[in-house]
């Protein structure tokens, strides 16, 4: 069972005590400790919004994630010189681009399953035309430039979430983390 599965199972646990008989809280603790290891890591928030907010019903998490992700997209876009920002008009257009890319990429990462086939890649025993059998929804944007930036940022989100899950999983597999952050042997 992977980290995400264990994390989701922990979210639904009826008893989050952390003792010899109850270890349901371990994935939640591992996620917190893994986040503390990397400054500015949005991985735990990505997991919380994607997997926990259905249970927790906290819309503030999505708003916070969108703010943080938009700032990250602005930073990446400027570093990669997506568009020039020489004039006030250019800067305003760039901000609109960054915001659009952030919103579309986050929305796609959170719910990027093909609606036609339900993510299975097949429809009526044939390859789904909408997703071409991949199970992922196509990115819906007319402009090729924006679509390519969104694809790039969706890939970044997958990388951030995978990296966080790997660090948290290593915490889980390396020993039982107690409340002080030390491993029990």
Overview of this structure, please?
- By secondary structure, the chain is mostly helical.
- It has 6 helices and 4 strands; from the N terminus they run αααααββαββ.
- It has helices at residues 3-11, 26-36, 43-56, 59-79, 88-110, 144-173; strands spanning 122-123, 126-127, 176-177, 183-184.
- The strands form 2 sheets. It has a two-stranded antiparallel ribbon.
- Helix 2 (26-36) crosses helix 6.
- The two termini are 22 Å apart.
- Mean pLDDT is 79; it is low at 175-185.
Itemize the secondary structure elements and their pairings:
Elements: H1 3-11, H2 26-36, H3 43-56, H4 59-79, H5 88-110, E1 122-123, E2 126-127, H6 144-173, E3 176-177, E4 183-184
Antiparallel strand pairs: 1-2, 3-4
Task: Provide key terms for this protein.
185 residues; mainly alpha; two-stranded antiparallel sheet; two-stranded antiparallel ribbon; 6 helices; 4 strands
């Amino acid at each position: 069972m992977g980290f995400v599965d264990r994390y989701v199972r922990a979210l639904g646990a009826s008893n989050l005590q952390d003792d010899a008989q109850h270890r349901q809280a371990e994935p939640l603790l591992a996620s917190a400790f893994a986040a503390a290891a990397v400054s500015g890591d949005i991985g735990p928030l990505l997991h919380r919004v994607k997997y926990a907010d259905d249970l927790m019903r906290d819309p503030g998490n999505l708003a916070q994630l969108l703010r943080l992700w938009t700032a990250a997209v602005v930073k990446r876009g400027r570093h990669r010189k997506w568009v020039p920002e020489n004039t006030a008009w250019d800067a305003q257009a760039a901000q609109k681009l960054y915001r659009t890319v952030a919103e579309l990429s986050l929305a796609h990462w959170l719910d990027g399953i093909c609606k036609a086939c339900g993510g299975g890649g097949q429809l009526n025993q044939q390859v789904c035309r909408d997703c071409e059998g991949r199970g992922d929804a196509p990115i819906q944007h007319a402009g090729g430039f924006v679509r390519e930036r969104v694809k790039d940022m969706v890939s970044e989100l997958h990388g951030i979430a995978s990296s966080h899950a790997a660090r948290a999983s290593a915490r889980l597999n390396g020993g039982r983390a107690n409340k002080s952050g030390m491993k029990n042997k």
